[in-house]
Amino acid sequence: MKYLVLLCDGMADTPVEALGGKTPMQAANKPNMDALARVSRVGMCRTVAKGLKPGSDVANLSVMGYDPRECYTGRSPLEAASIGIDLKDSDVTLRCNLVTLSDDEPYENKTMVDYCAGDISSEEAAKIIKTVDEHFGKPPYKFYSGVSYRHCLVVDGGTTDLGNMTPPHDISGKKVGEYLSKSENAAPLIDLMKKSYALLSCHPVNIERKKRGLRPANSIWLWGEGTKPSVENFKAKFGVNAAVVSAVDLLKGIGKCAGMAVPEVAGATGYIDTNFEGKANAGITAFKSGCDLVYMHFEAPDECGHRAEPENKVKSIEYIDSRAFAPILDYLRGSGDDYRILIMPDHPTPIATKTHSGEPVPFLIYDSRRRLDGVSTFTEQTAESTGDFVENGPDIMKMLLEK
User: Fold this and answer.
1) Bridge partner list, 223
2) Which one-letter DSSP state was computed for residue 17?
3) Residues spanned by CATH 3.40.720.10 within the chain?
4) Burial 163-194, CB ≥16 within 10 A → b, else e
5) Is the pTM of this model over 0.90?
6) What pLDDT, in 10s, does the model give residues 15-30?
7) What's the farthest any 2 CA atoms get from each other in the chain?
8) What DSSP designation does 116 have?
9) What is the CA radius of gyration of the chain?
10) Span 32-50, pLDDT tens digits
11) Considering the domain 2-72+231-401, what is its CATH architecture?
12) Residue 84 to residue 251: CA distance in whole angstroms
């Protein structure tokens, strides 16, 4: 038996005026997902337990079958694991975004223009993080470069009692002052953020980016604090060999912590320009190499939600369906093995709010051995109409594996 999880990050949404009152899932031409929906179990699942923040970390852990209330220690430690940082028990890590802030002074009056600095390339970002570490990476601080705008700060002997370290994608277009933690423990970190603006505004990489009409990565933004993660080995927990295919360090980190295979895919960006075909090939290769379960993660719908790009969000769903899911589905159909497929978002990322929501999400479970009476198309509305509701998110993996 082979198992495929097609995780479309942030795909669920609310009706969008620019799409004629449809959600992106309703507006998207996704014939492969819809065909399966007609013969599958379809319903809604609460991936973010009440009282937890609706992040991709919590939601993906839940879909993978882990209870975040038992194993979650913060977002950044999972990303640190992907980067290859060997954390001590006393270390605290933080996500270090490269962002674009407005020129207003003082720092508190600046606006969050872009939480991803114009989707800066990993090569450009590495040069900037190197400069940041040279200037600010003195004990207890050490900066590590990651992918695109996503990087990591490790604080030796740090604390997670930092007040509200707000994710930058939650405050797009807003003045940052009221979202800076007022905790005394966070004061040195906020000071690093302020000093980074003076350092990076004239950085050679940013000078060149501005010449090309691109947004500068003119500040670091620290958030997502946590300590060394403790995630049970996936095979020990569920009895199957698994792989995670993703462009982002968060998912790669979860995979590495859980003992899964984590292939690298050239050109995988986490946005709509990602290498969809390359990710599909990586998933097929993982199956051929002996993996029983492949967790295919696509970040693009989430990014389009954060950027309030309805047309691109529709396009990202269509690309997943045609350029990634179609070839994997063809492989599974020709493999000679029975297979089961789970398709779902981790959480909604509504265009209207540009940030994550903790609302339940639609799911689809297909089994090649049987045909069920499903729904006409895979959307939020059709999934809700079935009345099939999974209250405890981690149960969805058990359902896929028939545990």
Assistant:
1) 95
2) G
3) 2-72+231-401
4) eebbbbbbbbeeebeebbbeeeebeebbebbb
5) no
6) 999 999 999 999 999 9
7) 64
8) T
9) 21
10) 999 999 999 999 999 999 9
11) 3-Layer(aba) Sandwich (3.40)
12) 13
